[in-house]
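User: Predict DUF2267 domain-containing protein's structure from this.
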Amino acid sequence: MSELINQIVEKTGVPADKAQMVVDVISNFVKQKFPQFGGQIDSLLGTSGGDSGNAGGSNLLGDLGSKLGF
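Assistant:
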């Protein structure tokens, strides 16, 4: 997961802790939409599979999207 976080930091300029939150939000979103892939997502990202409980993550995702031109 650190490789993904580093890429987000380098390409967007957001701090690493915010990039971590973005990855958590995206991971949880994809696992909710495609629960059959939850284990593979956790394995890929090296996460334990718990919900981070990040209520402010959607704003971070919007900020990241705007920096990337979405």
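DSSP finds four helices and no strands in the chain.
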